[in-house]
Structures are given as structure tokens and as C-alpha cells.
Amino acid sequence: MSHRTEPPQRIAQLVLVTPDGGVVGSLPGVPVELPWWQEVESVVRAIRERHGIDVIVLRLLQASRKRPHGGDVVYLAEVAEPVAANHWAGRLEPHALRQTYAEPGGPAADLDWAISVIRRRGIRPSGAPVQIRSWNLSSIWRIPVHGETLWLKVVPPFFAHEPRLLTALAGEPVPRLLGHDGGRMLLAEIRGDDLYEATLPRLLEMVTLLVGIQASWAGRVEELQALGLPDWRGPALAAGIADVVGRRRAELSLHDAAVLDRFVNDLPRRFAGIEACGLPDTLVHGDFHPGNFRGTADRLTLLDWGDSGIGHPMLDQSAFLGRVPPAHRDVVQAHWVRRWQVASPGSDPARASQLLAPLAAARQAVVYQRFLDNIEPSEHVYHRHDPADWLHRMLALLLAEG
Question: Which of 9, 40, 82, 147 has most Cβ atoms within 10 angstroms of its Cβ?
Fold first, then answer.
């Protein structure tokens, strides 16, 4: 795998508001354990240890670095009542794209809903909920109950198909929904460990699991459309790629822009070649990698279906292979090909994956541009450079094709 430099330590400063939105003031920056901006459990813990107060982190207001993560960051956070704080001269303005859980009172409403579901099911809470994450793509809380831990996940409207899809996938090795309401989901505990460092046998098991799910949804595109999943089939994906190339042109050299223009113009021929490989359009996970699995010795569960969509099944391959140790990639790829040859006799998944590799990177550029179009500007820093970064990865793949 490619070497990644660890980000610097995160220093979190908080601007405090009460549940009615009244500004209390600011707290000076405190160092927190983890650098990842969206991870807020360590922020809440650091503030409690330093100042003796409990807060709920609502959203990012400012970051000193141009890219995630680490460095000085300023969050808006909620306190139950006014506390001693420094004067803050800033302004809090409303924004049409702000998520409900990023507003004062929003997380409390989400937790009230989750507790109501828990009580209707006759489950006994056993401790206070713990805030884990808050950013433009999700709000996540851990809720201890008698005998297990439940998870409250709240997602923005552009991910609101996730609970509907999980309902449709009930019985498959996916998270079990205890209840959902719009973008709110209450999820049962998933036993086991995160599998970022999975062994080769487990990696092969993951591929087999995905192909099995995808094969079961082949020919059911209308059902997936009814669930509200994004469309990444040929015409829709080609239009999205052309759009993001045009909008990101200023971040490309003249040569690279010309290469991408030729690629866009050639998309009908490329999609025709992919279609000739004989694999069906189906459910695409969209963020398929070992870290999105939890597992025990005898069971795997595939998490995080918010990025899912409709398209060619091999769109999921390149991201997974990019997270696999180089020594295992050929074996995993060969296994993937064999599984689809069994699921779709007469198909050519190897050729399809070759043709799709740059399209998979381009799809990522489209996805991140969609995020930017649907989140408020203060949180653009999370994703600002991602569309152009993925276009540059696509260019490298095109160069490798010769």
C-alpha cells in the first residue's frame, strides 16, 4: 500500500451555544487524541477533562489546514446551559444546506427518536449515549443498552436511501435495522472486529459476499430505482463525468484537460465495450473496502451503504484492490473474476474491470462533487480537493492503458 504521512495533532477550539441557539462564547483550543476532524468522541472527552463540562459537537466552523486532518479546528458545540467562556465576536448565519443534526437541538431530537424506538421494543438503556462522529455525511452515536450496544446513525438527504436499502437487504450480511425515520437509523450491534487488516482468506470471503448480493439484484434495477439509489449506469455516469470535468477544468493543466475531453468524447464507445462483456447492471456498494467490514470467525457484515448506487458491479473492484496488500491483489482479482464467471456464465469480467478502472475513479470525482453541491460552505474543506484528485487518478489510469 502507498505510504501516508500521519496528520499533525488536532487542536480543537469550541464556540458554545445553548439549545435555543444563544451564543455563550468560546473555549480555548485543547489537544485531542485523534486527528480526524469528523471524529468527535475524543473532543467531547478532552473538553470534559479540561473544563468539566459536557458538550455536543454540532459542526465544523473553521480549519487552519486546507485539507483534512489535524491542525487547529473550530467547532460549534452545544451546552445545556451557559458556562464561563471567552467572548466570541463571530456570527452564526443560517444556511439552507445545513443538516438538522448540525443545529442546536438537532442531536437531542435524534436521540429522543432513538430512545422512543428502544422503549417500544422493550429494551432497557444502560448508560448515557456517546457522540462518536458529526460531519456533513453523518451523525453517529453509541447507545449502551442491556446486553449490547446500539448505534444511532443520521444521514443527510442525499444518503436517505440507505435505510430503505437496508430494509430491502434484510437477511443479508448487512447491519440490522431496529427502526428508521427519514435519514435516521437505529442499528443493532455488530459483533466482531473491524477488518482493515484482513487476511487473504477473509479478503476472498468479502468478495464472495459482495458478488452474491450483487448477483441476487441483477435484473432488479427498477426496484433499486424505487429505493432512490443514484444511477451510475452508462448515460447517467457519462453525464456526471462530463459535468465534473467541465467544472474542475481550472484545476487541470491544458494537456490534462485535453486528455479528459477525449476521454469524455470516447465514453459511448467505452460503455459499449463494457456492455459487450456481458455483466448485468445491479447494486453497487460504492465504498467497498476491507475497513467497511466487521466480522467474527464465522460471520462478516458489510457496513456503510450510504454510497450505494445502480451500475456495473465491477465499479466496486478498484477501490477494494487499492486497499489490499500488493502481494494479495492478483489472487483477489482472479477470485473476483471466477465468482462473476460462475454468477454470469459467458461474461468477461476481467475485460470489464480493465475498461471500468478509469470510470471507477471518475465516479468518485462525480460523488465528491455531489457532496460539495449539497453541503454548506464551511464544511467544503472536507471534500474541496477530492473531485480534482480523483480526476488526476483517472488520468494516471488512462496513461497506464497506453
Answer: 40
β-bridge mates for residue 150, sequence order: 143
What is d(CA 189, CA 199) in angstroms, rounded to the nearest whole number? 23
The domain defined by 102-187 folds into Phosphorylase Kinase; domain 1 (3.30.200)
Question: 194-401 belongs to which CATH class?
Answer: alpha beta
Burial state string for 185-211 with b = 16 or more CB within 10 A and e = fewer than 16: bbbebbeeeebeebeeeebbbbbebbb
| Biggest CA-to-CA distance, the chain | 70
284-294, pLDDT tens digit by residue? 999 999 999 99
| DSSP conformational letter for 289 | S
pLDDT digits (tens, 9 = 90+) for 317-368: 999 999 999 999 999 999 999 999 999 999 999 999 999 999 999 999 999 9
User: Within 13 A of 162's CA, how many CA atoms are on the CB side?
Assistant: 30
CB under 8 A, 24+ apart: contacts of 195-199 = 195/290, 195/291, 195/293, 195/294, 195/295, 195/300, 196/290, 196/291, 196/323, 197/290, 198/290, 198/293
pTM of the predicted model over 0.90: yes
Domain coordinates in residue numbering, the chain:
10-92, 102-187, 194-401
